Amino acid sequence: MWSAHHASVKNTFEDENLCLYQVDFNEYGQPAWTDGVLHVGSLVGHPLITENRQNDLETLLTSRRTAYAGFRHAEGAFCCVHYQKHNRTLSLITDALGLRPFYYAQFDDAIVFSTTLSVFAQLGINLTVNKDAVIEYATLGYYLLDHTPYMEVKCARPGTALSVSTSSQIQLVKYFDWMNLIGEPVDTEHAVDSINSDFRQACEKYAGSDSHVLTTLSGGLDSRLITCELVRQQKEVSAVNFSQADTQDLIYAREFAASQPVHFSEVTVDDTQASSVEIRLGKYWREQMHPQFDKVSRPQLAWSGNGGSVGVGFVYCGDDVYKAACTQDKNRLAEAFIAQQYAQVPRSLMKNASYYQARLKQNIVRSLAEFDGIPLQQAYYLFLLHNDQHHHLAIPYEKVDEYQMEFCVPFYSWKVLRHTLNVPMDELRRHKFYLSWLDKHYPEALATPWQAYPGHIPCSLASTGTNQWSLVKRRRWKSKASLTACYKSLSYGKSAGIRRAMFFVVCALHCLRIKNASSHIAFVNKITKWNTKMAS
Predict the structure, then answer these.
(1) Are strands 301-303 and 406-408 parallel, antiparallel or unpaired?
(2) What pLDDT shows up at residue 24?
(3) Residue 473's pLDDT is what?
(4) Positions of the chain with pLDDT under 50
(5) Of 121, 391, 469, 526, which one has the fewest beta carbons inside 10 Å?
């Protein structure tokens, strides 16, 4: 199963062992499907071995017979399917970070797989809740390990290949190991030059022969750096900003755009957290038929700064977390991480809250243990890549059939990120390394004010406007959304795991503006996202 919408299927293959449905909206302008005498193969995303994903697909299918050698060179975000007709063997392979993962489940003698998780709930199959996963999503915003909301369904881990034959025995192979990228420490100047070279090459492969490109542009550094590189490549750039009025995110993007030869568009939104920028851009760009739509070389392919703030800026490594990591004690680090992320299961709202909180900590420790053998500071960095960043695009891509857009994400290239692994972690924190990179190779990115993260190196230029972090702190859930969350919680019965009477009171106080219960409402809304039930 390759897509949630059968009616949109463009490529299909069926025999007595396999039913394969593939949707391609032609975002890249390059096909990614082959059906020959020996095999069937397909892609979502772009492996980024070369500029051409169809050529990349042929390379990957050939290399499949040599222990996934070709896949270890792929630096893009992609998922590949390969079916060998002669021996009836199916292989599924996700990229080095699992940014475009496959989800899979075994029911009796059948293997069901998809690149979207929502498919499984539509198949009429009995699914049971994965309680650990639901709590992880509600507290952290993503799942750990190979968890999904359903016990029966697993998510492919980064750099993983699955193989299954007519015997229906699943074999998992880790073809890409990030720990192998760790070598001798390098000085900052050398790492800055190296990451710059690989970043530019990744951008060149994504851009190909495009003359006019589309990108998001916020008030931060990530999309700004991408814009600088695209301008240097002499691409005509159309940039879109989605922000609240009078915020730094808008003001700084506007000021930077004015300093560059770009076509800049502003879209005012009430709540930047209500939807991902990928979904916003896809819907806005298509539905509004932007004046630049037909001028962009590939109008359904956009550039995104995802991966920069975590991978290069190391934003989730506050002082307490870093100090805990330096002790080399995984339990202590897990506790510091939970505190930093405010990842608390509210006892007033959840039955067995203490148990779920303990399970969350245990699974964080398990996730960190995947990287035993290296200093815990580096293990924590890889933990973020393999969990937080691994799932970062999963939510927007669940709705890719609706907005029909793909994204160029050069910050996620393993060739780019490998240089951060050998920089001292304390040099990587607080955007220190990132700013050194920009200062040397992209000084134009620092010529106008930018929005810095709290606790990180502040912008050196005069600031104005409201920053998004203060907006997040005072944001309230709207009454209608709060009542919807309340209704959803009530519909699950006694086995929901939510203290329904208490939550009803909390929602009532919130709607009457007696109390701001936004964090509790958000927690319960995530608990009920997948229409699953928690055992009491």
Answers:
(1) parallel
(2) 85
(3) 56
(4) 1-7, 493, 534-536
(5) 469
Distance separating alpha carbons of residues 147 and 149, to the nearest angstrom: 7
**pLDDT tens, 333-345?**
999 999 999 999 9
Integer Cα distance of 519 and 5 in angstroms = 34
- Could you identify the residue written with the tokens 């304390």? 426
Sheet holding 78-84, edge to edge: 33-35, 39-45, 78-84, 89-94, 160-164, 171-174
Q: Give the number of other Cβ atoms within 10 Å of residue 83's Cβ.
A: 22
Q: What phi and psi values does residue 8 have, to the nearest 5 degrees?
A: -95, 0
| Cβ proximity of 57 and 30 under 8 Å | no
The whole-angstrom separation of Cα 144 and Cα 387 is 6
Residue 319 neighbours by CB under 8 Å, 6+ apart = 455
CB 206 within 8 A of CB 231: no
Alpha carbon distances (Å) from 70 to 63, 64, 84, 142: 5, 7, 17, 30
Please, are residues 259 and 316 in contact by the beta-carbon 8 Å criterion? no
One-letter-per-residue 3-state SS of 347-377: CCCECCHHHHHHHHHHHHHHHHHCCCCCCHH
d(C-alpha 15, C-alpha 457), whole Å: 58
Dihedral sign computed on CA atoms, order 496, 502, 506, 512: positive
- Hey, how many other C-beta atoms are within 10 angstroms of the C-beta on 456? 18
Percentage of the chain with pLDDT > 70? 94
Q: Are 343 and 321 in contact, with CB atoms under 8 Å apart?
A: no
Q: Which residues have CB under 8 Å from 385's CB, separation 6+?
A: 97, 158, 178, 310, 311, 417
The Cβ of residue 180 has, within 10 Å, a number of other Cβ atoms equal to 9
Contact partners, residue 475, CB within 8 Å, separation at least 6: 271, 273, 518
| Measured distance CA(453)–CA(455) in Å, rounded | 6
Sheet containing 212-216: order of strands: 262-268, 236-243, 212-216, 301-303, 406-408
What are the residue ranges of helices labelled H in 394-490?
394-397, 400-403, 414-421, 425-428, 432-441, 468-474, 479-490
Q: CA–CA separation, 226 vs 251, rounded Å? A: 18
> What angle do the packed helices 500-511 and 479-490 form, to 10 degrees?
170
Which run of H or E residues covers position 511? Answer: helix 500-511
